[in-house]
């Protein structure tokens, strides 16, 4: 009986001596490869404007920075752990301080008339479109 090892300990020992065993035997989920601290974002073309939505559950308005710079819309989030939370005696804790930035290029985005609202953990940004300017100028040759 002294040579018997509980199953969970055997699994721990197996992993200690064969760290790549699971890698080649189990399928890889691509969703788990990305950073855990990011947010989902959708961009919808609504003919005269774009509607960008970002899922930001638990994030306060003051922790979000939205910027449009030469057609690139950036959403930056910095969530800080409060001083009150730092002094609590957690047995298990998955929330922490984190930051993430997502962006999208909208080539015909207008800088006037932008609007954003945060409701029920979803940030919705409306970006009006402008008439596309011709980037090519014909030059006559003398």
Automatic annotation (TrEMBL):
This is Hsp20/alpha crystallin family protein. Belongs to the small heat shock protein (HSP20) family. PROSITE patterns: SHSP (PS01031). Coiled coil: none annotated. It comes from Fannyhessea vaginae DSM 15829. Residues 32-142 form the SHSP domain.
């Amino acid at each position: 009986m002294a040579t018997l090892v509980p199953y969970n300990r055997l699994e721990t020992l197996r992993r200690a001596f064969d760290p790549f065993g699971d890698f080649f035997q189990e399928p890889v989920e691509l969703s788990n490869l990305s950073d855990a601290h990011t947010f989902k974002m959708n961009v919808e073309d609504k003919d005269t404007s774009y509607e960008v939505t970002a899922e930001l559950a638990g994030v306060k308005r003051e922790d979000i920075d939205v910027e449009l710079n030469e057609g690139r819309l950036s959403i930056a989030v910095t969530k800080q752990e409060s001083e009150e939370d730092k002094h609590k005696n957690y047995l298990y804790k998955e929330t922490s301080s984190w930051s993430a930035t997502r962006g999208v290029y909208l080539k015909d985005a207008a800088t006037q008339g932008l609007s954003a609202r945060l409701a029920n953990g979803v940030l919705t940004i409306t970006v009006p479109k402008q008439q596309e300017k011709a980037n090519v100028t014909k030059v006559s040759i003398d």
